Each structure stands twice: as C-alpha cells, then as structure tokens.
Amino acid sequence: MQRIFISIALVLSCFKINAQVQIFEDSEPRFIQAMKLERMGNVERAKELYQNILNKDPSHQPSYFQLKNIYNKNGEFDLGIKLIKSWLNSHPSDHQSELSLGEFYFRDQQQKNALEIWKNFEEERLTNKTMFRLLFHSYVKFGQTDAMESLSLKGREQFDEPYFLAIDLANYYQSRQAYDRALRELIILIQNQKQYLRYATDRILIMSDDTSSHAIIDSILIRNQKDESELGEILAAFYYKIGDFQKSFDQYKLIDMNLNKDKWIRFSEDLRKEKEYALSIEAYHLMLEGIKTSEPSLIGKILLGLGKAYEDQIIQKRSQLQFVRWYPENSFFNNQLIDQSLLINNESLASSLEHYQSILALMPNTRSSAEVHYRLAQIQSRIMRDFFAARSSFEIALKLNPSTDLRKKIQNEIGNLLIFSGKYDEAIQYFKPEANEEFSYRTVGYINSLLYSSQIDSAVAFLDSNILKANPNEAHFNDIFEIHDMIIDYYTDGTREDKLAFELFFKAEKLINEFDVKGAVKVLQTIEMDYNDSLVSPLASLRLAFIFIDLKQYDKSLEYALAVSATSLKDKGLALAAEIEEHFLKSKDNALQYYYRLLSESPNSILSEPVRLHIRKISQPNES
C-alpha cells in the first residue's frame, strides 16, 4: 500500500513539473510573437497575448513589464493599476512595482492614493539606500520637491551621511533652474566628499551657460568660500568661463599661494591663448619669483611660455590676410614688426631673470639645461633687448652639449645679435660661408648683412657665383632665388636713382631688424617722395601698407595700398585695399568695390580666380 502511495506521488510530481515546463515553453514563443506584433503596431493583439501569457503563468515577468509599459504609453492608467495590483498580490516583495502603482495613481489623477502608497513605503520599506533611491526617483518624476527634501534629510540622519542624495538633488534643481538650491547641494557634497570637487566644478560651469545664473553662482560661492577653501578653485574656474579673467587670476593667487607648478603653467598658457597677454605674463612672473626649483623641463616651460606671451602681445601678425602678404615664408624678411610704443622696460622681469640665472648656475650640465639657457637668451634678446646678456646665455647653452638642431639655432641667434645691434661688419665675418658650403642660415645671414650695410654689389657677386651651383633640395634655396630676382629687378637693371632707392629700401629693412620701426617708416616715405619713379617705389609703398597694418593704423595702410594700385603692382594693391576694408575697417561694400576693380583692371592676375571665389562667398546673404 505504501509503495502504491509513493508511486502515485511520483507520478503527480512529474506531471506538475512537466506542466510547468510546458507553460514556460508555451509562454516564450507567444511572448516573442507578442513583441513582434507590438513593434509592427498591432498593440491590441499584443496586449491580448501578454495577458493570455500572464493568465497561464502569473509569474511571467517580461509579459508583465511589456503590458505595464503599454498601459502607461496609452494612458490606460486604470488598466495599469489593476495589472500592478494583481501582480503585487502574488509578488508582495516587488518594491519597484509598489512604487509604480503610486505613479499610475498619480497619472490617473488619484494623487491622494499615490501619496498614501509612497508614505507607507517611506514608513515601512526604507531599510537601505536602494529603497531610499527608488522612492526618491518616484518623487522626482512628479516634482514632489518637499518630499524629496524630507526624504534626503531622513536618509542623511539614518546613514550618518550628510551628503546622501546631494548629487541627485543638485541635478534635479539644476534641471529646473533652481540654481541656489543646486549650489547648496553641490557645496554639501564638496564639504563631505573632496573627490567630487572636479564633478561639482563641471556642474557649476554647465550652470553658468545660463547667464541668469551668474549673479547667484558668484554670491553663493563667495559667501561660502571662507568655510570651504575648495570653493575658491571653482570660483576661479567660473570667472574664467564667463570671461572675467582678472578675477580668475586673483582667485588663483588667493587659493594657491604655494604655486602648484602644473596648474599655473596650464593657467598661464590658457590666458595666453585667450589673448590675455598681460595676465599671462604676470602669471609667469609669479612662477619665476615664487617657484624654487632646479628642474630643467619646468624652467624651460616657464621661459618658453613667458617669451611667447611677450611676443604675442608685442608682435602683430597679419593672420587675416589671405591674398597678399609681405614675402611670406621668406627668411630674408622680418615678417613680424614690433610697435615701438609697446616695447617693455620691465624691471620686475629683469630681476626675475637674474633670479633664475642664479638658479640655472646651480643646475647640472645637461642637454635640457642647454635648452633652458637658449630660452632665457631669446627673452633677453627679443624682449629685453639686452644683447650682451643674451650672447652670454647663448654661449653657455653652446657649452652644455646641445643637440645638433639646437646648436644650429644658437649659432644663428648669436649672428642675429650682431645684426640687431647694427654690427654689420662683424656679422659679415660671422656668417661668411666656407667655399662650396651648402645654402643654410649662414647664407641668409651673410647676404642680409651685405644688403643692410649697403654692399649690394657684393651681395650680387656672391649670388651670381653660387646660385647656379646650388642644389634645389638645399634649405633656403627658394628664398635665395627670390632675393636674387628681387635684386636683379629693382637694382641691377636700374638706373643710378633706382640703385640709390634700393639701398634706402634695405636701410629700412635694417632699421626694422634694429627695432626702429619709426625710422624705417621715414626712410620708406623718403623713397616715395624723392624717388617716386624708381623701380622699387611700388614695393616701398606696399611695405608701408603692411607696416601700418601692424601698427593698427588702417586708414594709412589703405592709403598706401591704393597708391600701390596705381603702379605695376596694381593687383596686389587692390587686393590688399579690399582686405583692409573687409577685415579691419569692416566695410564689405567697399571691399567688394576693390575686389571687382581687380577683376576688371587686372584680369590676368594670378589673384583673379581666388578673388572671384571669395566674392561669391562674401556676397551670399548670411544664413539666419
């Protein structure tokens, strides 16, 4: 009898297992079919299949989720409420569905029932952080601000974490432009979790995209800065973001008295890129005065950055000009002019450089320190115009076993010091190439020294005897051919008056190299007045046009460009006049007149086609 009972039990057990397997096997193909119908847009038929699956297998969670989502999308909240209630009857521990029931009630305009469910959840389910977060995000969906605040305070007390849910609250308030509350939460986060400083900074900078937030951010960060020093760094980043660079700089000085080297080099470089040259220079000065180190790479970065900041402030580049430039890429001409009024006699820089020289004297003799001395010499030469100190620094760099490329640069710069200081006889001897020497920086320096000292015939003789032997692959080959053609066109083939004018022209170039731009302008104007018919006169007027662009005297520049347009360089004069009007005087109509004149009066110019394309571009109406 007992055996019969066991056998029956085994049979029933197997039947039950087989039935469950059968339900599962039947459910899955129908579920896939229902999803396909739903994707095809046959939602009603899909709903029927999902419901049929649940009728046979009430625990089939995928069908439950799909059906609940359909009810939510279609606004069938009453059906959704029934579905969730039914599910909870058999799955009472599904806390997410419990909260979803409240959400469906809320959407169905039954807010009282929704709040009651959430209140019960808050009283009975908040045993861990996950439960807090689940309820919090239900409150977020329906803008229950007071409930969110209350819940976060409760969690902070329960878990002894003053920053609990701070990120979530900050994101919520920021999305609703409640910037004061968002800042409050981010400050709480920073006070308790320093590793989130970068995150909080990024969030606040995103807030600042809305200009209405600026006053709020400024006042709140300043008010709390005394209690939380890290806010100073955020405040500095905020000021930088909104373009108040002076305040940003002042903040960095307040918060980083020890001058963190990486931070300050990055900040100084960023200021230079923003064209805040004075602040960039001041930042580099702070590092020169305050950082005590003998690390060659760091010193090199500081000196290089300082040099760039000074040069970018002083030197005006014609980057906007695209059709006519002054012998672009030709190493015989100084394409960067220095406005005399901007030259700096900076005692603090001089004392800082002296301070660094004392540090450099203690550094080990390495290739890296050779680079540092080279950078120092460039600043002394180009910025301070202290040629004696610069030569000393260059010579020290040479003794420190520099790389081959750096050695050539140093040797070239030492020769240039002779040119800058007007010692042309010494420069000629220094640069004079050896017999059969390839074209190099020495060739350029030698020819320039001859031209600047009015030894034009000697320059011609040297070129005539060497130019046909040159290898086209040699450095400066094209530059040397260009200067040779220029001398032939404007000097060799000219009259006595032409030759005198040409000598004056290179006297002006000499003065530019000696940082005497005013003197160069006077000499070029002398060519215009006294040698107006000379071959080089149009070139002198063109040079004046470029100089006055560099000096930001655009009306004078336009005057000289138009003077060029009445000469053999008509196309260049008209193109330059057009670009002055377009880029500097901001008159597109006037620019177009000169562009059209170029097409009409110089149809065979190589500038015609690019100018034609440019006319089409700027003639198109601006897109809104």
Structure description:
It is a single chain. Helix 21 packs parallel to helix 23 (441-452) and helix 22 packs antiparallel against helix 23 (441-452). Among the domains are: 31-255, Serine Threonine Protein Phosphatase 5, Tetratricopeptide repeat (Alpha Horseshoe); 256-421, Serine Threonine Protein Phosphatase 5, Tetratricopeptide repeat. It is 73% helix and 1% strand. The chain has 624 residues and is mostly helical. It has helices spanning 2-40, 43-56, 61-74, 77-90, 95-107, 111-124, 129-141, 145-159, 166-175, 179-192, 197-207, 214-225, 231-241, 245-255, 261-273, 277-290, 296-314, 347-360, 367-383, 387-399, 404-420, 424-431, 441-452, 456-466, 477-492, 496-513, 517-530, 537-550, 554-564, 570-584, 588-601, 608-619, and strands at 315-316, 337-338.
Write the layout of secondary structure elements.
Elements: H1 2-40, H2 43-56, H3 61-74, H4 77-90, H5 95-107, H6 111-124, H7 129-141, H8 145-159, H9 166-175, H10 179-192, H11 197-207, H12 214-225, H13 231-241, H14 245-255, H15 261-273, H16 277-290, H17 296-314, E1 315-316, E2 337-338, H18 347-360, H19 367-383, H20 387-399, H21 404-420, H22 424-431, H23 441-452, H24 456-466, H25 477-492, H26 496-513, H27 517-530, H28 537-550, H29 554-564, H30 570-584, H31 588-601, H32 608-619
Antiparallel strand pairs: 1-2
